Amino acid sequence: MSRLLVDRVSKTLGERLLLDSVSMQIEAGQSVALLGESGTGKSTLLNMIAGLEPVDSGSIDFGDTRITALDPDAAAAFRLRRIGFVFQAFHLLPYLSAERNVAVPLLLAGIAPAQALASAREMLSRVGLSERAAAAPRELSGGEQQRVALARALVHRPGLVLADEPTGNLDPVTAASVLALVDEQVRASGATLLMVTHSEQAASIADRRWRLDAGGLHEA
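The structure corresponding to this sequence follows.
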C-alpha cells in the first residue's frame, strides 16, 4: 500500500494557466472525491497522475515511484502494474467480449491466457456479470459496460485506482449500484482511490472530499 503525493503541480493549456501549484496527499488505502466545475482541470490532473499527460512543473509520486520522472514507455509499464483507470467513456474494445476486455491488462502484463481469462471471469463474477462474460460491449447496457470497465480497472489488483466521472453516463439507480461496487471492490483490495466527479452521490462513498476551483485545490 502506497501514498499518493502531488507536490506543487502546474499545467498550462495554450495561454491559460489551468493548474497553479496544486498539492495534495492521499494516504494508502484512502478514498478521495475530487469535486469542481467543468474546466477547472480535474480530469487533466487525473491524467497527469496516471502519467498520460506531462506536468509543466512540480512532481507526482506514488509510493517510491516519481511518476513525473518516467518516460512514456516507463509510465505505460507503471500504469499496467500499479494503476487502474475507470474512464467516463468506458473505452471498452468493441471487438472483444466482456471477459476478454477485462483480461487485457493481465495479457499485456504477460500472464498466460488461460490464467488471465480465469481471473477475468472471477472479477466479472464479483461485479455481478458472470452471465455476460461472452457478450460484446454493444450487447451490454451502460451500467453493464461500466461494470466491465470497473472489473478491468481492478483485475490486476492496482494500488491506485483513478476514476473519471464513473457515473457520468448512468441513471441514478444504476449509478448507485456502480458506486457500491466501486466502494466494495476498492476497499476489499486495499487500494487508494481518487475519483473525479460532479456528483454528490458519487462523492458520498469517499473518505475525504477535495474541491478544485479558480482558487486552487482545497479540502471540502
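The CA atoms of residues 146 and 186 lie 15 Å apart.
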